[in-house]
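Form 12-C: Joint structure prediction
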Amino acid sequence: MTESHNLPSRTEDAGGAFGPVASAVSLVLMACAAQGLLGCRGQQSEQTPIVPIRNMHAQPRYSGQSVSEFFEDGRELRPPVAGTVATTHEVDDLVLTGEGPNGWVSEIPTKVVARNSGLTALAERGETRFNIYCAPCHGYAGDGAGSVNRKAKVGAFAAPSLQDERIRHIPDGQLYATIANGIRSMPGQGHTLKVDDRWAVVAYVRALQLQQHLVAQD
Ligand code: HEC
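Section 2 - Result
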């Protein structure tokens, strides 16, 4: 028998009369602490929060609509540098407006056709856009028989047939600009149709006109 063998083991000690009481007390204390911490949630405070590991929690920053003491114009929200364009912005004015130095472009710019995998693909895309954004007024066949025209009985303000002899002969650029900006009582669709989609609608309107014209000639 060794001496250590006669000493009461740690387990026996902890398992004595105070063991369960101590465990219960510490449980209650932990519950109180948790309650105390959770109880703080949702309460507003003017104090800076205590963040033990700061990482990048607090950094100097600018907010929109706030006053800056650093910049001369006093604005925190900085205006973009002059000449800045969004990466999605069309930089070719001719493609963007449908108008060149010599007036309306007569045909859909070739670069638009090329970047949309050809005229057929462009017109197919245009068909989906036309049926959403033009057909309600101009009709699915572009003949002016749209549901708005039929139901609203708009008379003088009715959307015309796109088969109209004059409209069949306006340059592609002018048709594009009509879609983008609207004309007289027609609202512009530039906010809903992106540049290439407007050209796509031009391609589809041309296809419709060609088809209906051929049908009419038959
Ligand atoms: C809310 C109804 C409405 C929608 C949607 C609409 N149009 Fe029109 N559109 C009109 C009306 C009305 C006119 C006649 C404007 C006038 O002469 O006062 C018109 C005129 C036109 C003209 C003739 C312009 C000219 O030179 O006289 C074209 C081309 C045209 N629309 C194409 C389109 C295309 C393409 C779309 C779809 C992107 C479209 N429109 C969407 C109502 C509409």
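Section 3 - Comments
The first helix runs from residue 3 to 6. Confidence is low (pLDDT under 50) at residues 11-15.
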